[in-house]
Amino acid sequence: MAIYTKTGDKGTTSLANGERVSKTDARLEAYGTVDELNSWVGLLRAGIQSTDRFADRIQTELVWVQNKLFNLGAALSCAPGEWITASDVQQLEAWIDQMQVELPQPRAFVLPAGGEAVARCQVCRTVCRRAERRMLEIGNEQGETEGVELQFVNRLSDYLFVLARFIGYKLDEIEQIWQK
After folding, report:
1. Are the beta carbons of 26 and 76 closer than 8 angstroms?
2. Gap between the Cα atoms of 145 and 158, Å rounded
């Protein structure tokens, strides 16, 4: 099977429903950003050491996240079916709540810095926020700025923020606070 089809050589591509669109279409920008986020999550996973006492749990969660990001890409590419559900949002909320039980309350705005795994979490969080903005562009065009997919991406960015704090806390890193 050839990896190349040559059908996109003139700047268009097909959505999952067969519609051909420009490669600069807002929908492609959205699911391309979700794909980028998925790659960053893979890099985050690569930076979590198996010797870290929390590694197995976080690796399991992040594999789940990566699969859900593929599902989100399918939804954004107009593939028929239900790809993201309310229970997916609830799962992220449960993980956030579990981590926050162990974390001290933030004293101020936290800088997106720290050790490598913490910094990678923060990059994932910011790419996730960009994906959310791209999804909102589509929603604004179609008059639909609500939905479980947007809830999922919003909650995922919260999860990634809390995960960054959690990893830093577990590794005894000093949280860097914004100083005006």
Report:
1. no
2. 19
User: Which regions in the chain score pLDDT beneath 70?
Assistant: 7-8, 141-146
Neighbours of 90 (CB within 10 A): 12
pLDDT value for 41: 98
Task: Say what the pLDDT of residue 157 is.
Answer: 98
In one-letter notation, the amino acid at residue 155 is R
Q: Residues 6 or more apart from 72 whose CB is under 8 A from it?
A: 31, 34, 83, 84, 149, 152, 153
Tokens 């992040």, residue? Answer: 62
Domain boundaries, the chain: 24-78+85-170
CATH (residue range 24-78+85-170): 1.20.1200.10
Q: How many residues does the chain have?
A: 180
Res 52: pLDDT: 72
